[in-house]
Design a protein that fits this description.
The chain is of the alpha+beta class. The chain has helices at residues 2-11, 18-40, 47-54, 98-103, 105-118, 121-125, 129-145, and strands at residues 64-68, 72-75, 84-94, 150-160.
Length: 161
Amino acid sequence: MANEEEVEEEGTKKKSKMPLIIGLVLALAGGGGGFFAVQSGMLFGDHAKVEADSHEEIAAFPDVVFVPMEPLIINLGQGAQNQYLRFRAQLEVGGAFEAEVTTLLPRVMDILNGYLRAVDMHDLENPNALIRLRAQMLRRIQIVTGEGRVKDLLIMEFVLN
């Protein structure tokens, strides 16, 4: 039996731990190299730029004032079977021009009243016509108030009765 134990001890050689150590060293070196590449900006963009962008201040809103207009009720005439259009809007104006545009509101209302009375009933009933009508009205308003004063026309109500 003593011979059998000696054979068993001689038959089981210790395996080398060198591949395990080499693998561990290579894994650490790869992880360190990857960390350095990402931190230095070699991979996935410039890290310093990302930090600078995150600390940028948010720009303030531009100086805009909304000038409300009186509602218009327009009789669409004989061809429309005496239907009415109820129209209400606001003008988007630069803050410096608010007083000037407010002074010209009666002229703006006159221009819109005349334009909307002249529009054909079929144009008013078309769902896509509102975009074209809005652009036409804005252009007329900009001509009356002067270029650069009125930025946009916001239609609050456009109802056919």
